[in-house]
Design brief:
It comes from Caballeronia calidae. One of its GO terms (biological process) is DNA-templated transcription. One of its GO terms (molecular function) is sequence-specific DNA binding. Pfam families: HTH_1, LysR_substrate. With about 300 residues, the chain is an alpha/beta fold. The chain folds into 3 domains: about 80 residues, Winged helix-like DNA-binding domain superfamily/Winged helix DNA-binding domain (Arc Repressor Mutant, subunit A); about 100 residues, 3-Layer(aba) Sandwich (D-Maltodextrin-Binding Protein, domain 2); about 100 residues, 3-Layer(aba) Sandwich (D-Maltodextrin-Binding Protein, domain 2). The chain is built from 10 helices and 12 strands. A 5-stranded mixed sheet has the order 4-3-5-12-6, covered by helices on one side. Helix 7 links the parallel strand 8 and strand 9. It is elongated, with a radius of gyration of 22 Å. The chain starts with 7 loop residues before the first helix and ends with a helix.
């Protein structure tokens, strides 16, 4: 005989609440009430004979044992989805997901990680287009829109998944030619600007206590990804968002000469039309983005 198992609904509630760190967000993802999530978690705790969450005023925290349990339980839902797809039990559901995202974010963060999603879900075709169009203009054309936030748009469900800050970055070769020991040393360097972000450098220089600094030269680009590429190529120093330069820092293509100050930046968020928010494929992709965002936040590059 097979060993007894807890309720699948209880496990789903635990997995979502544990992954998101919130009963409220878990309820939104699973399209049930917050009370239902709480009830299912209590049922699972009773079945296991153990406490899974420490309850605080507005948040819940997994116990150490529950974190280990979540690490084992979480991947099982992905395996169930893959097994269902392999046996053709989801043929009636569209397996194509359309995403509209910001160009630099897509190039430097999403695309390098997308293969992990495809490896987990080979049956899902993800179609990505990039633009800076306002969210409201894209409602009917895409399943998911990725933009900065958090912002509120009527008729949309917004969920943040990735936070970052900004700090100066440049190529190692540039530092070897012209060392940077203090922010004052930037007087000998070229500062790389993006025309759509005119306040980034002045704000950082003010926080670094050199608000009147005049660099050796200034070079301005119309697209942010060109600014970052210029930094990789050793043309000057750019203000790099930590999420978008993490892979370059890890590979040694860029270095961050100063660990502080770090300018706060807007988060990356998914925006989904209300009527699409319950679609299984959209829920799957949003959850994956949130897992990747959490992994980045807890990683060494954060």
């Amino acid at each position: 005989m097979r060993s007894p198992l807890p309720s699948l609904n209880a496990l789903r509630a635990f997995e979502a609440a544990g992954r998101l760190g919130s009963f409220k967000q878990a309820a939104a993802e699973l399209h049930v009430t917050q009370g239902a999530i709480s009830q299912q978690v209590r049922l699972l705790e009773a079945w296991l004979g153990a406490t899974l969450f420490e309850r605080h005023n507005r948040r819940v925290v997994l116990t150490p044992a529950a974190r280990v349990y979540l690490a084992d339980v979480g991947p099982l839902f992905d395996q169930l989805s893959q097994a269902t797809a392999r046996y053709g039990l989801s043929e009636a559901v569209s397996r194509t997901l359309t995403v509209n995202s910001l160009a630099t974010f897509t190039l430097r963060w999403l695309v390098p990680r997308l293969e992990k999603f495809r490896a987990r879900h080979p049956d899902v075709e993800v179609r990505i287009e990039t633009s800076n169009e306002p969210v409201e203009r894209l409602k009917d054309a895409y399943d998911i829109v990725i933009r900065g936030g958090p912002d509120t748009f009527y008729g949309y469900v917004m969920r943040p998944f990735l936070s970052e800050a900004r700090l100066p970055v440049c190529s190692p070769a540039l530092l070897r030619r012209v060392p940077l020991r203090t922010p004052e040393d930037m007087r000998r360097h070229t500062l790389l600007h993006t025309s759509s972000l005119p306040r980034v450098w002045p704000d950082w220089l003010a926080q670094a206590n050199v608000p009147s600094l005049v660099p050796a030269a200034v070079l301005t680009f119309d697209h942010f990804y060109l600014t970052l590429q210029a930094a990789v190529d050793g043309m000057g120093i750019a203000m790099g968002p930590t999420a978008l330069v993490a892979d370059d820092l890890a590979a040694g293509r860029l270095v961050a000469p100063f660990a502080a100050p770090r300018l706060p930046s807007r988060s990356y968020c998914t925006y989904v039309a209300d009527e699409k928010a319950g679609d299984d494929l959209i829920v799957l992709f949003r959850s994956w983005l949130e897992q990747e965002g959490a992994a980045f936040a807890s990683g060494p590059e954060a």
